Amino acid sequence: MLIMPSTTPDSSETAVTWNRLKSELSDLFSQTVQRSIVHYGDHQPVMARRIEAKLKLPTDARRQFRTFYAMETLNDCSDRLVSGRGPDLDIAFLGTVALQQAGLPLDEIFATRASLLEHCGEAYFASSSERKRRFHRTLVDLGIIDVAPTVRHQY
Fold first, then answer.
1. Would the N or C end of the chain have less CB density within 10 A of its end CB?
2. Is 135 inside any structural domain?
3. What is the CA radius of gyration of the chain?
4. Is residue 66, in this structure, part of any structural domain at all?
5. 77: CB partners within 8 A, 6+ apart
6. Is the model's pLDDT at 135 over the cut of 90?
7. Total tally of structural domains belonging to the chain
8. How far is CA 133 from CA 11, 87, 125, in A?
9. Terminal CA-to-CA distance of the chain, rounded, Å?
């Protein structure tokens, strides 16, 4: 699976370059190997807050984590994947949605996050959902997420 940040998704130059790269990738990979490609918008929470303040926009806790994305495949004729731009979503869900669209099985963590997509909607980070908090607490308790401060050794 290729996941590629897009900086200028509507540029004709970008489209020409992308089509050339896609053709080269298709030639490079075996025709029997399917590849999923995800294009997404780079999100920068600090910059989003600064723009919000500069433009005097109403505060929106979701704005800083929202991203656009589009998916497509190489060497796949199954029509399983709905190609093109999907609805904007919270960046935390991008990996989960990509795995779902690729038709890959989800482990317990991704399956839970997928259920939280339906539960929290596009506002994962901004959601005050108790269910989401319990999920995060479980990840910490299992040692999957380490929230301890990193100790830097000085030599």
1. C
2. no
3. 19
4. yes
5. none
6. yes
7. 1
8. 40, 24, 10
9. 40
Q: Provide the sign of the torsion angle of the four alpha carbons 28, 29, 30, 34, taken in this order.
A: negative
The alpha carbon dihedral of 98, 127, 43, 60 has a sign of positive
Q: Residues 69, 46, 52, CA angle at the centre, nearest 5°? A: 85
Domain interval for residue 89? 2-105
* Residue bearing tokens 């807050």: 49
Identity at 125, one-letter amino acid code: F
Quick check: is 36 in a domain? yes
Q: Please name the residues in contact with 80: beta carbons below 8 A apart, sequence gap of 6 or more.
A: 103
Backbone angles phi, psi at 35, to 5 degrees: -125, 135
The whole-angstrom separation of Cα 94 and Cα 101 is 10
- Residue 6 identity: S
% of residues, the chain, pLDDT over 70: 75
pLDDT digits (tens, 9 = 90+) for 42-82: 667 777 788 888 999 888 777 777 777 777 777 666 655 55
Report the residue count for the chain.
155
- β-partners of residue 85 are 70
Q: For residue 68, is it within any domain?
A: yes
Q: What does DSSP say about strands 66-67 and 84-85: parallel, antiparallel, or unpaired? A: unpaired
